Amino acid sequence: MVVEIVDDALVARVGRLHAVATPYTEPEAVRVELIPGRGAPLRFHLDGDQADAVVWDGKTFERTDRSRRAAVRDRQLDESTDELAERISASAS
Asked: Residues with Cβ < 8 Å from 39, sequence gap 6 or more?
């Protein structure tokens, strides 16, 4: 499951299912209708002020470091691109 902000809305995705979250009656929870006609709460488990897991339809989805790894990969790609641009510039001189 991926829960992210898209165009100022909280959106949940599981595979091809996706829904915009709406307010729910419990704290630390929102309502999503990932399956049409079956709205259900997403309940966030917090570690301090950050969610470390979310429960939906009786299933727990734990936070992964994938987003952190993606940021490192993107930074490495940017550095490689900058280095390549410098080499091209130097060889053109």
From this structure: 31, 32, 33
